[in-house]
Amino acid sequence: MSQGAKILVVDDEHAILRLMHLALKGHGYQVLEAETGEQALIEASTKRPDLAVIDWGLPDLEGIDVLLRLREWSRIPVIMLTVRDAEQDKIAALDAGADDYVVKPFGMGELLARIRVALRHAAKGDLEPVIDAGGLTINLAERRVELYGTPVRLTPIEYDLLKVLAQHAGKVVTQRQLLRQVWRDIDPDNAAHYLRVYIGHLRKKIEDDATRPWRIITEPGVGYRLVTEAPQ
């Protein structure tokens, strides 16, 4: 997989982009480039690279925010580039889903070696960035939701709930999982009512009939399931 792999390089320093482009091309890789976080997300969702090298400091988004957005739908290896060498920054990057972390200035030999390692250990099978649930379209790459082609306006919590369910479409997601992933530091044992309230709000926006939901199914005492096919 290493030879000919498609590498997305995200950096707003032209000199770095030029250096990495030449080095990667010289080692047989295909190279995609982006100078902003939003451009990087578009390149990743449309051209599906095998690995991304993302600079922490971008003009529009922090590199770690690009990583978090990417991890909503993609498992491609990501190597973070940064001038920061603090332990907490490395932990933050790895916790956010980075596969490796290289501090500037770096040698191309070191970066190329880390790319080879990351590609060898690459997880198989990305999630699809666009999920269709019987007329409900969830674009994870662009954070856009449409119902029969009409945009659906969701609050951040409603979107996060739908995103987690979409990431596990067809499978039951437990209440504890949803609470921890959406509210993070909330006590899941005492917050089930939050979930019921927001699932109710979400159903009013994405179900054909909120009183008879079929897209978000309740699994009594367990959690919820996003169904992707309309009932016959």
TrEMBL record:
GO biological process terms on file: positive regulation of DNA-templated transcription
An example Gene Ontology CC term for this record: protein-DNA complex
UniProt subcellular location: Cytoplasm
GO molecular function ontology, one term from the record: cis-regulatory region sequence-specific DNA binding
InterPro entries hit by this protein: CheY-like_superfamily (IPR011006), OmpR/PhoB-type_DNA-bd (IPR001867), Sig_transdc_resp-reg_receiver (IPR001789), WalR-like (IPR039420), WH-like_DNA-bd_sf (IPR036388)
4-aspartylphosphate, modified sites: D55
Domain Response regulatory per the UniProt entry, residue ranges: 6-119
A matching Pfam family: Trans_reg_C
Name of the protein this chain belongs to: DNA-binding response regulator
Organism per entry: Alicyclobacillus hesperidum
